[in-house]
Amino acid sequence: MSKLKQPFGFAIFKAAPLLLLIFGSNALFANDVEKGEKLYRQCAGCHQVGPGASHAFGPQLNGVMERVAAKVEGYDFSSAFTDAMAPDVKWNASSLSAFLESPMTNIPGTKMAFPGVKSEDDRASIIAYLAAVDVDGKLATTAEAAISADESNTEKQPRVLAADVEIPTHGVFHLGRVALAEEVAAWDIDVRPDGEGLPKGSGDAVAGGIIYDAQCAACHGDFGEGTGRWPVLAGGLGTLTDERPEKTIGSYWPYLSTVYDYVRRAMPFGNARSLSDDDVYSVTAYLMYLNDLVDEDFELTSDNFVEFRLPNEENFITDNRSEEPYFSGAVEPCMTDCIPGVATVSQRARVLDVTPDQN
Amino acid sequence: MTDFDNDPKPIKTTANELNKDVIKNTVSRRSAIKSGLALMGGTAIAASTGKIANANTPDPLITEVQDWNRYLGDGVDARPYGMPSQFEKDAVRRDVAWLTADAKSSVNFTPLHKLEGVITPNGLCFERHHGGIAEINPTDHRLMINGLVDTPLVFTLEDLKRFPRENKVYFLECAANSGMEWRGAQLNGCQFTHGMVHNVMYTGVPLKYLLAEAGVKTAGKWVLPEGGDASHMTRSIPLEKCLDDCLVATHMNGEALRPEQGYPMRLVVPGWEGNMWVKWLRRIEIGDKPWHQREETSKYTDLLEDGLARRFTWVMDVKSVITNPSPQAPINHGKGHTVLSGLAWSGHGKVKRVDVSIDGGRNWKPARLDGPSWSRSVHRFYYDFNWDGSEMFLQSRAVDEFGHVQPTKDALRAERGVNSIYHNNSIQTWHIKPDGSAENVEVS
Predict the structure, then answer these.
(1) ipTM exceeding cut-off 0.90 for this assembly
(2) Range A191-315 classified under CATH 1.10.760.10
(3) A:B CB pairs within 8 Å
């Protein structure tokens, strides 16, 4: 048997002062309260907080960050938990974070049957939220403002008499409501190869280069070559029949409209829909330039857009898998003596050894 | 952990050795339980019970009263949302970190070797996101239908729940499932080679009802579903398919969709590439032509050896894999009666038959299909046989109701080359060695 885990108090709290250093100051907390309140919903089934909170399956957690562990009045802690917290462990950011990571393995026998919060960030947010709740269950005022603003739109409406509801005239079941033109415009951003859906506007490769360097190059590389494992956007022309083809906008994509459409809907990664329509024209022009399709001062506009063809457009064919012999449905598979001789290994997965470890 | 690893133990022969083994397993398992730390009991326990049958010493697990026979366990409400046994901790989704640049645009895999029956538990359905998991409050979610319709509409989740709904079980397979195996055997475990498939009962509204509500114009031929996450996922789908069997699902296996599966609503496109099953569905547009979105041009097109690329390869072809034994689930019991088990599915319809070979495709025997046989749902097969302890090359081959036969790797490569990435439905080989361990191999 490999080593038993150290008893909780022993293993984790010895390290507490060090952890505190890593965790840093209270500044970390303030921003996280709102997120923490949401994450706390996974704890709320067992722990009450707020004015008048009482013990439930778990102890109430009002002001827990000011508390000594396992000492809150009126709650019957398990002996495993009490022992692990003896003599006096004070809850703070580091001790709570360590405990919450995996309560059941940290304190074998605890009643807190909860697998834990694996993400350190999430734990920090939950702790920030708990720190903002005082002993009376009041939320520190600034935090409260942020959260109640968030919740106001889920407040219960007064109930309406069923007979007073107006039934729309459209459709079969008369459900849903008519979408307004502004709403459709806000969401309908797709662009087709024939130019349908393109917004009016323009942008040039020079402006696109500035945006690209600032907002795209970190992942996609200065020349679209891709850094690390992030996608490659340029180059690879003529490599499609190579042993290792490089599929890029220039070498593989059939339509320019897809570049405009995709960048507008999904990039930059982590900040989608932040570019203006003209910015997207500029970046698209720059991506054409990186693929040697246009000169560096090229301007792309809603008027000249559909003139441009990407080199690989003609090389896409429709699905013809059904013509492959085994899918034709005419062959009865062989059942006996299908291949002569005994099987010998020609390829082994272990050789490459790229499978993640089991534990 | 050293005692509970998954490495197959050499098969012991003498009674003494057997006893040592039993005792060792028992002791370590009990202390592990006491400390609440037992992580990996499954394999070791299974291995030891197999051997106990021959032992002469009484089994202390039977002759002594165990903790759990004496002391009370948790009461109700200790687990407001029940989780699997603490001894099932390795039945989890796992990723292959080197495949992608960032976890927010990545994939993990269903532990097929840990599952039985045909339904995939919600927490184990593999994940593939292009912009992370969108966390959407259902009251803040809207579904819009626009484009070539008489009345563009907006629905809330509450509206959706007032449409007639259906319950249907379908598999969802990522088109890139087994995509790492085109060039040769690479990943050692069916979780990684075949784990981008899951099988779920959906509750949802037939898409045709929603479309009828808006009134599709006669020029409308194509449908573009769009997701509300940060990738705004889009795919072009022919209207015909949408009127046939697509659903807008709100529930999976009886409960609300999981956030990682598109809560509060996702599209279900039975038998077709998983990528088309848009999650966090927020908009459905009707048009007269396809849109050629990024996921149907740059991605999800199949490059052939001659440089041509197939597009709109929607259907997931007939496929099967043996899940037990397999590299993560070796044979621990030695020779004798052995149950081989696996999964088969076809995007065209039902699986008609699965054949199993233990000699690398020389000879085949029909496997036993068990459990429900639904169109475009996973089928479970078994092959029970007497293992003589010699090495085996296990293969399975599915045939669907239309006579489509699962091809060999060589046959598929001969038609397509090795750069297709997607739609690799070829026959998988596991090499079972005389010690019961298994490896992903190719045979000639």
Answers:
(1) no
(2) yes
(3) 306
